[in-house]
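Q: What would this chain look like folded?
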Amino acid sequence: MFRSPVHSTFAMLVDGVITLRAYEKNEFFSIDFLRNLEKGANVTFMNHVANRWLGIRIDFVIFMFCTATAALAVASKGLIPVELLTFTLQNITDVVPMVSISVRLYAEFENYMTSSQRIYEYTQLEPEDELEKAIDSKLKE
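A: My prediction, written as C-alpha cells:
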C-alpha cells in the first residue's frame, strides 16, 4: 500500500552510499527512511483495522439475520413442516459464512484494484512534446 516511498528511499540510499559517507549525511537519510517506514506501518495498521471493522459489522448483520430466521422458524413450527424448517436453518448456516467471506474478499479486491486504476490513468495521459522541434534547428542557423 505505502511501499513506494520506502523502496525509493532504500534504492536512493544504496545508489548513493559513497556520496552519503563522503558528506556524512547518513543520519539525515536514516531519519527519512525511518519516517517513511513508520508511515507505511501506520497505513498498513489502519488498513487492517478497517478490514476488522468491516468484518465485525458484517458478522453482526449475519448474526441478526440468523437469529431472526431461527426465531421465525420456531414461531412457525406448527404451520410449516419441521423438515422444511430444518432444511432452511441448515442452508442458512451453510450460505451465510460464504456471504461474509465474499464481501470481505470483494472489499480487499477493490482496495488492491486502486493500483490498476492508477496505471490505467497513466496510460491515458497526453504525451509530452518532442524535446527538439523543427523550428529549433532553424534557430541554430
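The chain has five helices and no strands.
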